[in-house]
Design brief:
The complex is a heterodimer of chains A (449) and B (153). Chain A has 13 helices and 17 strands. Chain A has helices at 32-36, 72-76, 86-92, 132-141, 155-160, 184-190, 235-246, 271-284, 294-300, 343-346, 382-400, 404-411, 433-443; strands spanning 52-58, 64-70, 80-85, 116-117, 123-129, 143-148, 173-181, 193-202, 214-220, 225-230, 253-256, 288-291, 306-316, 324-332, 359-367, 420-421, 427-428. Chain A is globular, with a radius of gyration of 26 Å. With 449 residues, chain A is α+β, with helices and mostly antiparallel strands. The termini of chain B are far apart. Chain B is built from five helices and five strands; from the N terminus they run E-E-H-E-E-E-H-H-H-H. Chain B has helices spanning 25-32, 88-95, 105-118, 124-130, 142-150, and strands at 3-10, 13-20, 51-54, 57-60, 73-75. With 153 residues, chain B is an alpha+beta fold. Classes of the chains: A alpha+beta (449), B alpha+beta (153). The interface between A and B is large, with 34 and 46 residues.
Amino acid sequence: MTQTETQTEALVVEQTETKPGFAGTSIPRKEDKRLVQGQGVFFDDVKRHGMGYVHFVRSPYAHAKIKSIDVAAALELPGVYGSLTGDEVAILTDPFFELSVKPGADIKDYALAVGRVRHVGEPVAAVVASSREVARDAADLVVVDYEPLPAVTTAEQAQTNDVVLHDEGGSNVVWEGLFDWGDYEGAIAEADHVVKIERLHFDRFSSTPLECAGVLVEYNRGTAQWTLYGNHQMPGVGAIWMAPALRAGIDKLRFVSQDIGGAFGNKICLHPQYVACCLLARKLNRPVQWTEWRTDQHTANAHGNERTFLEIEVPVKKDGTMLGLKVRALDDCGAFPRYEPLGCIIWAQVTPGCYRWRNIRVDFTQVVTNKSPVSPNRGYSRMQHLWLTERVIDLVANELDLDPVEVRKKNYVRTEEMPYETPNGCVYDSGDYAKCLDIALGLIGYDGL
Amino acid sequence: MTSKRITVTVNGEVIEYDVEARRLLVHFIRDDLDLTGTHVGCDTGNCGACTLLYNGVAAKSCMLLAIQADGATIETVESLSPDGELTPLQQSFSDHHALQCGYCTPGMLMSAKHLLDKNPHPSEDEIRKAIQGNICRCTGYVNIVEAIKAVSK
C-alpha cells in the first residue's frame, strides 16, 4: 500500500513585505510556450472530415443592381459541393440589426447582397468545394449580371441624397446629433480672434491583423446547433447579431475560440460571412470553412471610419488661449453602419482632448457611402477626434504666429486640476501632459530640428 | 488538373505525396501534412508568416509550389522543439515579450534561425535586415530584435 504525500501551496497568500504581490513584476505569459512552438490553434488549423472550403463571389462594382446570378456552371465543376445566393439568404434569414436608432436602424443588411451591391468586394454568392483551389475555380464560373449604378464616393456627396443607397430609409443619413456644451456664443464674445478652418479630413484605414478573418462551421442536425471555430473577437456580440437573423436562439450558436492572430476591431463585424457559412453548413450537411483572402480583407473587411471636419471655428485670445471649438463632423461609415453608429457618440469620451476648452459644439452626422463598411478599428472614433484637436492646435498656433509647443502647454489640462471633469462629465483621473510632451520632444531631438 | 508525386524531407522525415501542380507549398505543409505552425497572412508574398527553411535558406512557402519542393529538405517551426523543450531562441522570445498574438512568430523564428545558423553573432542592423521580410502587427518589432540579440552574444 503506497502512501503519497503532496505539498500544496496555499491558494491565497497574504501579501507581506517579504512576500510581495504581483503588481509591478513581469509575469510570464501562459500562451507563449505553445505559440513559440507553432502549436497555437488558429481557426484555419482546424480540420474536419469531409469539410468544404468556401469562396465568396464578390462585387467588382461600388454600386450596382444584381440582375441575375447563375451558379449552374460552378455546380457542374467536379469537387463542388454547393452554393448560396442572396435570394436564398433573403428567404432563410431576417436582416441583421444595425447598432443604430432610425434612420440607420431601417437599413436592411443581409449575409449576402440582396438585389443590389453597395461596395466593391461585397459578397454576392458563395461556393463550397473540396479544396481551396477548386472553390476559387468554381467562384470564377459563377455568372453575375450587374447593372452599374452611380457610386457615392464621399460623405459630402452622400449628404445630397442624389443617389440613395438604401431605399428603406430614403436618405443616406444613418444618424445625426448636436453636441453642445458650455456657452459657445459666450466664447465668441470673449475672444480676441476666431480661427476659421474650412475643412480637415481623416482618411479611412485598416488595422490589418496578420491573420485574416474566417471560421469553420459544423451543423448538428439533431440539436439544430452550429459549432463555430472562428476568430470573431467578440463572439457573444456576434451571437446576438446572428441568432435573430438565423431565427434561432443564441444557445444554437456555440463558439469555440482559442488563438486569434490579431484583430484590432477588424474581427467584430464578421456576422454576415459567418451566417453565410452557417447556412451552407446546414444546407450541404458538411462542415464548411471560410478563410478570408488578404485582398478581400483590404477591400471589404472593415475599415476605420473616415471623417470630414467642416466649418471649424476656434475662438481664441491673442496669447493662444483657446476658448472653445465648433465643428461640423461628417462621418463616412461605408455601405452598412453595423457597429459603427456607436462611433457617432463614443468620440465624446475625449471631447476636449488634452485641453481645457469648455465651450464645445459638435454637429455630427454619419452617412453611408459605396465603400467598405466600417467597424471599430483600434482607437476608433476617438482617434479621429483627437487628431482633429491636435491639427487645430497647430493651425491656431500657425495663424497666431505662436510656438505650437507653447500653445499646447498653455491649453493643457494641468496636473493640479486632476481629477478633471470634462465639459461632458468624463473624468480624467491623472496625467501630466506637459511633462509627457517634453519627454517626447526630447526623444526626437526637437530642439535640434 | 495535373498531379505529381513528390519526395520531400520535412523536419527530418522523408515523405512521398501526390500533389496538384498548382498546390502552394504552404498549403501542402499546413493542409496535407498537418503542420499548422507555418501560417498564411497575405496573398502577395509580403508578410513572411509562411517563412520556413528550404534547403537551409529562409523561404516564403506561399511563393513556392509544392512540386518545386520535390527533392528538397524543409524545416518548419515544429522542428525547433520536437520534444517540447524550448530552444534558447524560443525561450528568449518569451522572456523578451517578443510575441503577442503569436501569428508572425513561427516566421520570425525561422528567419532568425536562418540568420543565426549562418551568423551566430549578428549586429543589430543584421538582425533587423534578417527579419525585414516578416511583418508583425502587434509588437512593434523592438522586442523581437531584443530577443534575437539576446541569443546572439
